[in-house]
Every structure is written in structure tokens, then in C-alpha cells.
């Protein structure tokens, strides 16, 4: 299923919408406070953000359109807003995440808290989130407000799970998948679901369910690939520190698979790789194991599930673009 026919880049297919997004967001984060403005707009002026989420939202919005009917421009405009809201929430969460993780770089540049201070970063994230909430309310759809508020709840739940993890949680694959859902997949799943709701489909409709399932599997595939790249790619390429998960004490899929083959990984995971040499030992055991291959297979499985859910929608250029985007998620190198 993951061998889509070649076609235009999924990003180019919604290029006009993405261009508008950048301009709009600059306007939306306009504030009298110069530092806040700088901190918040810093992110949107960087070309390096992948704008994955707004791209997915726009393509999903097109994919759920009814064949043979003219586009409802009013609906499409609100879906464009949804894409914007999603990117603003995502960016707010990254600004806060870099404070929590004490990460120095993001999107190939200094993290906001490094450029300014923790205080500015906390405020800038809150500010973006506040503006996103106003826009969300203005969509005038209570179901969508609830779904997107649930995504926010999930983001915070994921961070709290990570911060409060017990040693046994850290070794559990099930816990890892749940945390990955909360941290990453929930925002994609909820925004895909919301795109379908905005098109007028009911909560229980096949379209809304398929949109959410697609987002769920794509989001998990994305996070699992992210966890893989943390081991396989250089800091330069990622625009953020390499091996950062190990250094931050996080055991992700590659390590959990490696632990199935090398039980001596267990104590390292439980003490969050904090003893001297732990990071190196864990990395060495990982390289001897089939952890990286198995992680790739897991990402591929989720990607193929995502593509299967897309078959609920008519075979349109947008649908095909979503298939190509799913393929890109698992073949990406940064
Ligand atoms: C940065 O996002 C990283 C995260 C938010 C943590 C992991 C989450 C993702 C990688 C999930 C996104 C899922 C999909 C399917 C789009 P990013 O790598 O998208 O950062 P960017 O916006 O700076 O490119
Ligand atoms: C990146 O994960 C972080 C997230 C996907 C979510 C962060 C969420 C919060 C900080 C909760 C607050 C939420 C809002 C909306 C303000 P990561 O650290 O694994 O990825 P990284 O390698 O890209 O840093
Ligand atoms: Mg982080
Ligand atoms: Mg984090």
C-alpha cells in the first residue's frame, strides 16, 4: 500500500493555503508587546518548520469533500483556520517543550527560551495558545471546540506522563505507545477529525471515524520515525540535539525493542540512563540488536494502517496526496 504513484508534492498541492497561513499568523500574533511579538513570530518566520499539520488538515479537508458538488468556500475557509489553529497549538507546545527539556535548538535555530528567557518562552507559548483558543471559538462549532480542547488536554497529559513516569512505566511498550498518542498523534487525529466535522459529517459517520483513525496512525508513525531519527541522524540535520532522548532519560521504541533482546538494558532504562556511561552502553546494545529495524517495521505498519483508512474516501488528488504524505513521513530523514 505504501508505493503510491508519483505525483505533485503534497505540500505544493496546498501551497496557496500554506502561504496564506504564514501571513495570517503573522497578523494574528500581532501584539503591542515587542518581545512577545518577536518570540512568537520567530517561529513562523522560520522556513524550516515542516508545516506538516496544516498540510494534513487542508488535504483532509479536500479529501472529505463530496464528489460532484462545488466546494463550499465558507466551510473551506473555516478548515483553513483549523489548520492555522493546529500549527499555533503545535508551536506553542514546542516552545514550552524546549523549556521543559532544556533544549537549546529548535527548527535549526536557537530555542525561544535561549534567545530570550524562560519567562518569555512561557508567556509566548501561553500567548499563542490563547490566540489559538479565540480562533477556535470563532469557528462556531461546539463539537470542534470539544475535539480540539481534548487534543490540548492530551498534549499536557502526555507531558505529565513523561514527567511523572515510574521506572516500570519506562520499560513498558504499552506506556510508550499511549504517551506517544497523547504527545503527538492526538493533535493530528483531533485536527483531522475536526476537518471532517467542519464539512458537516456527524460524529459517528464513516468519514469522521476514518479521518480520526488516519490521523491516529499517521501521528504514531510520525512519532516513531522521530524516535528512530533521534538515533540515526546528526544534530545538524535534525536542527535539534542528537541522541537527545537517551540523554533526557527517555526510552523510545528502538531501546524497548533492544531490551527484549538484551535484558541488561532494563536497569539502564529504569534509572533513565543517568549513571556514567549509560548513554553509550545503551547506544551500543541498541546497535547490536534489531531494535532499529523493528522500529522501522512498526512505523511502516502504522503508515499502512493510515493509508488503509484513506480508502474510505473517494479516490481524489487530495486523497492521493495524503498517501504520498504518509509515505514521506516514513521515508523522511529529518
Ligand atoms: C516537532 O514537530 C516534534 C514534535 C512535536 C514531537 C514529535 C511530534 C511529532 C514529530 C508529530 C507530528 C506528526 C505528524 C503526523 C505531522 P515537527 O517535527 O513536526 O516540527 P516542525 O513543525 O518544527 O517541523
Ligand atoms: C515534543 O516532544 C513535545 C510535544 C509533542 C508536546 C509538548 C506539550 C507540552 C509542553 C504541553 C503544553 C502544551 C501546550 C499546548 C502549550 P519531544 O520533546 O519528544 O520532541 P522534540 O525532540 O521535538 O523536543
Ligand atoms: Mg523536546
Ligand atoms: Mg519533550
UniProtKB/TrEMBL annotation:
<keyword id="KW-0479">Metal-binding</keyword>
<dbReference type="GO" id="GO:0008299">
    <property type="term" value="P:isoprenoid biosynthetic process"/>
</dbReference>
<comment type="similarity">
    <text>Belongs to the FPP/GGPP synthase family.</text>
</comment>
<keyword id="KW-0808">Transferase</keyword>
<dbReference type="GO" id="GO:1990234">
    <property type="term" value="C:transferase complex"/>
</dbReference>
<dbReference type="GO" id="GO:0006744">
    <property type="term" value="P:ubiquinone biosynthetic process"/>
</dbReference>
<keyword id="KW-0414">Isoprene biosynthesis</keyword>
<keyword id="KW-0460">Magnesium</keyword>
<dbReference type="GO" id="GO:0004659">
    <property type="term" value="F:prenyltransferase activity"/>
</dbReference>
<protein>
    <recommendedName>
        <fullName>Solanesyl diphosphate synthase</fullName>
    </recommendedName>
</protein>
<dbReference type="GO" id="GO:0046872">
    <property type="term" value="F:metal ion binding"/>
</dbReference>
Amino acid at each position: 500500500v505504501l508505493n503510491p504513484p508519483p505525483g505533485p508534492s503534497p505540500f505544493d498541492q496546498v501551497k496557496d493555503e500554506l502561504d496564506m497561513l504564514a501571513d495570517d499568523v503573522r497578523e494574528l500574533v500581532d501584539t503591542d508587546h515587542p518581545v512577545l511579538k518577536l518570540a512568537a513570530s520567530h517561529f513562523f518566520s522560520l522556513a524550516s518548520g515542516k508545516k506538516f499539520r496544516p498540510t494534513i488538515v487542508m488535504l483532509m479537508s479536500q479529501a472529505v469533500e463530496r464528489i460532484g458538488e462545488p466546494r463550499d468556500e465558507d466551510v473551506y475557509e473555516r478548515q483553513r483556520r483549523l489548520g492555522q489553529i493546529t500549527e499555533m497549538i503545535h508551536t506553542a507546545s514546542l516552545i514550552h517543550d524546549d523549556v521543559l527539556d532544556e533544549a537549546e535548538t529548535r527548527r535549526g535555530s536557537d530555542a525561544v527560551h535561549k534567545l530570550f528567557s524562560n519567562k518569555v518562552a512561557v508567556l509566548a507559548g501561553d500567548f499563542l495558545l490563547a490566540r489559538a483558543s479565540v480562533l477556535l471559538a470563532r469557528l462556531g462549532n461546539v463539537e470542534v471546540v470539544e475535539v480540539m480542547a481534548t487534543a490540548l488536554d492530551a498534549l499536557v497529559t502526555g507531558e505529565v506522563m513523561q514527567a511523572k513516569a515510574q521506572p516500570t512505566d519506562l520499560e513498558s511498550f504499552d506506556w510508550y505507545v499511549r504517551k506517544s498518542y497523547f504527545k503527538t498523534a492526538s493533535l493530528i487525529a483531533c485536527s483531522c477529525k475536526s476537518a471532517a466535522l467542519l464539512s458537516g459529517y456527524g460524529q459517528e459517520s464513516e468519514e469522521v471515524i476514518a479521518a480520526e483513525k488516519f490521523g491516529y496512525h499517521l501521528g504514531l508513525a510520525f512519532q516513531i520515525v522521530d524516535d528512530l531519527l533521534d538515533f540515526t541522524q546528526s544534530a545538524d540535520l535534525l536542527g535539534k540535539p542528537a541522541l537527545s532522548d537517551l540523554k533526557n532519560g527517555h526510552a523510545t521504541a528502538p531501546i524497548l525493542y533492544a531490551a527484549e533482546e538484551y535484558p541488561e538494558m532494563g536497569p539502564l532504562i529504569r534509572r533513565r540512563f543517568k549513571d556514567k556511561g549509560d548513554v553509550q552502553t545503551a547506544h551500543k546494545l541498541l546497535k547490536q540488536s534489531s531494535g532499529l529495524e523493528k522500529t522501522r517495521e512498526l512505523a511502516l505498519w502504522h503508515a499502512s494502517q493510515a493509508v488503509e483508512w484513506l480508502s474510505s474516501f473517494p479516490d481524489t488528488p487530495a486523497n492521493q496526496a495524503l498517501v504520498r504524505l504518509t509515505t514521506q513521513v516514513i521515508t523522511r530523514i529529518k
